[in-house]
């Protein structure tokens, strides 16, 4: 299994374009920090949970798109030809899919951890003040549902055609910008800007950071849907593996 893991890691992640996309994501994160977060989101403090959550959500949008692109390469025609050769070894198809998703999922988590660290270091170096426990809560609420949902949808669409993954990337972007007021964006950024602005208008000043039940339910819904999709894809892979063994 370790040989399969190293092989899949090499063909999925050890690519120049993957490294380039990581660098671009971190550069974009710095741009958000220096141009938006430093001013504070909706007149909140730059180091507040609101501002940091918006920062994480905005950068996670890029992380999601990068991860979907990497996932699409897993279902490319070239990769399918390689998989046919790998299947000759008798290694279960279902386990192979799990390994690939662990690799891609780890990539997403590491990228978001780097973005998290960049934001904390930036705010600490300028303001000397951070709310680490709040930031960690923001990170988990944004990253974990995104990770599971993206892997679930990406694998389901990739089995049909990699082209559908690219279409889904467009849907993710539309939901992030065109549906701001509805708080249904997959990357979860709009909540921090829209709700903090609404609370400020309602109470006449900056309000303490809070997570509303509605936002929590939305994040849990994405998590639940992603888990269901991963189970469906896994079961289909398992059926395919059993049929090929007969």
Q: N-to-C terminal Cα separation, in Å?
A: 23 Å
By secondary-structure content and strand pairing, the structural class works out as: mainly alpha
Query: For the residues shown, what is the average pLDDT?
Result: 86
N-to-C order of helices and strands: HHHHHHHHH
Strand-residue proportion: under 5%
Give the strand tally. Answer: 0
Q: Characterize the largest beta sheet: strand count, sense, and whether it forms a barrel.
A: none
Overall shape? globular
- Note the total helix count: 9
Radius of gyration (CA) equals: 20 Å
Binned, the helix content reads over 70%
Low confidence ranges: none
List keywords for this structure.
about 80% helix, about 250 residues, 9 helices, mainly alpha, about 0% strand
């Amino acid at each position: 299994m370790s040989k399969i893991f190293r092989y899949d890691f090499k063909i999925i992640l050890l690519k120049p374009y993957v490294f380039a996309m990581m660098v671009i994501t971190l550069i974009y994160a710095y741009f958000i920090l220096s141009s938006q977060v430093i001013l504070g989101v909706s007149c909140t403090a730059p180091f507040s949970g609101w501002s940091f959550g918006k920062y994480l959500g905005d950068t996670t949008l890029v992380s999601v798109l990068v991860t979907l692109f990497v996932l699409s390469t897993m279902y490319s025609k070239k990769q399918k030809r390689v998989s046919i050769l790998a299947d000759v070894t008798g290694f279960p198809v279902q386990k192979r899919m799990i390994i690939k998703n662990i690799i891609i999922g780890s990539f997403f988590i590491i990228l978001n951890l780097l973005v998290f660290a960049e934001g904390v270091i930036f705010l600490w170096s300028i303001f000397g003040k951070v709310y680490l426990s709040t930031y960690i809560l923001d990170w988990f609420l944004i990253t974990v549902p995104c990770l599971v949902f993206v892997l679930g949808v990406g694998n389901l669409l990739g089995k049909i055609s990699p082209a559908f993954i690219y279409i889904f990337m467009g849907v993710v972007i539309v939901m992030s910008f065109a549906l701001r007021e509805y708080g249904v964006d997959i990357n979860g950024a709009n909540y921090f800007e829209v709700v903090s602005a609404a609370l400020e208008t309602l109470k006449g000043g900056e309000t303490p950071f809070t997570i509303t039940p509605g936002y929590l339910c939305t994040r849990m819904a994405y998590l639940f849907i992603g888990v269901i999709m991963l189970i469906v894809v896994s079961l289909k892979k398992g059926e395919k593996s059993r049929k090929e063994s007969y």
